[in-house]
Each structure stands twice: as structure tokens, then as C-alpha cells.
Amino acid sequence: MKPAAFQYFRASTTDEALDRLAQHPGSKVLAGGQSLVPLMNFRLSRPDVLIDINGVADLGRLAIEDGELRIGALVRHRQLAESGDVAGAVPVLPLAAKHIGHWAIRNRGTIGGSVAHADPASELPAALVALQGTVVLRSARGERRVAAEEFFQGFFNTDLGEGELIVEVRIPISKSRFGFNEVVRRPGDFALVGAYVERSGPGGSVTWFGLGGRPERLLVDAWPQDAAGRGTLLEELVEGLPLDVSEDYKRAMAVTVAERAYQQAEGEK
Ligand SMILES: Cc1cc2nc3c(=O)[nH]c(=O)nc-3n(C[C@H](O)[C@H](O)[C@H](O)COP(=O)(O)OP(=O)(O)OC[C@H]3O[C@@H](n4cnc5c(N)ncnc54)[C@H](O)[C@@H]3O)c2cc1C
Hints:
The protein is α+β, with helices and mostly antiparallel strands. It has helices spanning 14-23, 36-41, 77-82, 84-89, 92-97, 103-108, 111-117, 123-130, 148-151, 227-239, 248-266; strands at 7-10, 28-30, 49-52, 62-65, 68-72, 134-139, 142-147, 152-154, 157-158, 165-172, 177-183, 193-200, 203-209, 216-220.
């Protein structure tokens, strides 16, 4: 399949990309191209104008500042999976990033693209919700910051506005311990269901993805010490999700992945 004809601009600065976005309503940003290009090839997306941001060096910045891990929109999944700085600051992030697609996808795909695309089965949007991250958006109108929990609104639906570019995501460096687990049909596939579990004092949180249109984070006051008690609690939490999880097998998998993530957070496995 071939895409419909489009105009192509390659931006070399963030301001240039923002100018182009403002000049061409309905244009699309091209980052890693791992989601957008297949959609264009199948003509499910037909932008008249593509604005390639791969030449914008500032967007590839990865830094730890003021107690936060700051990840530029163009940081590739592979960098997240392999960076020692990321592993030191937010250890669960590389664990999850290694599960994204295959080598070729991780070499090209970017965190900004994953967050903008908002596939409900994606690891990184859920990581941002679990880790209480923030999405930094810029447009010709200025900059705004949106909590990840509010940014993801439903199936492939976000708070990203017309003319806005994701420039960075920020993750607070927390003392909590996090674990991650997911179930896939084959290695490299999108998750059927995945979970991040947080251990903070006696309680924490669980964030599920792949169950509905967006990641859902639920607070846990106190984690039961025994697996049977946690199983009961996790079943209740799945029941209480504001989602229509109609498939029984998905509910069962949600409990299983959360228990495995709990054990990882505990350092038990
Ligand atoms: C075979 C295959 C398997 C995959 N498996 C997984 C998986 O297991 N888990 C997973 O999470 N993902 C998976 N992916 C998707 C992959 O992670 C993509 O890289 C990601 O979803 C999109 O990132 P990208 O940089 O390629 O974005 P692009 O494809 O370039 O863009 C995607 C969308 O985001 C917009 N966009 C991109 N950057 C910005 C920005 N900075 N600001 C505003 N809008 C922006 C684009 O306009 C477009 O609408 C898979 C993809 C393929 C092809």
C-alpha cells in the first residue's frame, strides 16, 4: 500500500515545527513513523502535510533535573530500555520499554509518538500514569503541562490540541518501588493486559492497561501480605474499574499480571 500524496517539511528547531503546525491545520507530526506510516499506507490517515521533527536536536534530550526524569519527545524506546541514567532514576521504565515491539520498532519509535498515539495497550502511556508523570505541550499559543492521568482520555484519544507538539514528558523520581508485568500472545506483540504496581509504605497503587480505552490507576491503602488476600483485593479492584471489562479471561489475566508486578516490586522475583 502507498500513502496518499502529502507535502513534507523537515523542521530543524522546535519553533520551526510549531510555525509549520500553526500554518497547516490538520497537519501531522512525523516522529518515529512506526504508527503513523502504517496508518498512512493503509490510508486510514491522510494528512495533507507532514512535519518531520527528527532533525530537532532539543527534542532528543534526556536529563535528570529538579528531582524529575525529563525525557524529550524524540527519545527512542531503545534509549529508555538501555540508558543507565534512566535505570538508576526510574528502574521500572527500562523493564517496560524492553517489551515494546521488536528491535526495529524500539530503534525508531519515540516516547512522544507513543504518548500522542495513545494506544490503550501501550507500555509507555501506562508508565506515565503509574509514575504520576506530566506531559509538556507547546504550541504557537504557549506551553502547558498536563498530568498524564488527565492527558489520556480514551481509545487513541488525548488532550493534545490542534497545533500542539509534545516536547517532553516528566517523571518524578519517587522513593516508591514499582513492578511491571504484561501478557502477550507472542514476544513483540502489543500487550493483551499489563500492570504496574507501586509499593509505598503499606500501600501504593496498581495501574492496568489493555483493559479499556486508557490506563487506569487505582490506589491501594494497604497491600495484603499474603497472595490469597492480594488476589481477592485485585479481583475487587478489577470489578470496580470504570470500564466494561466483559471478557472473563481478561479479568483473570489482570489479576495475574498485577500479582506478578507486585512480586517484582517486592524484589521477590
Ligand atoms: C509491529 C509493531 C509492533 C509494535 N508494538 C508495540 C508495543 O508492543 N508497544 C507499544 O507501545 N507500541 C508498539 N508499537 C508502536 C510503536 O511503539 C510506535 O513507535 C509508537 O506508538 C509511535 O511512536 P512513533 O515515534 O513511531 O510515532 P509516529 O508513528 O511518528 O506518530 C504517531 C502519532 O503521534 C503523533 N506524534 C508523534 N510525535 C509527536 C509529538 N512530539 N507531538 C505531537 N504529536 C506527535 C503523530 O502525528 C502521529 O499521529 C508497535 C508498532 C509496530 C509497527
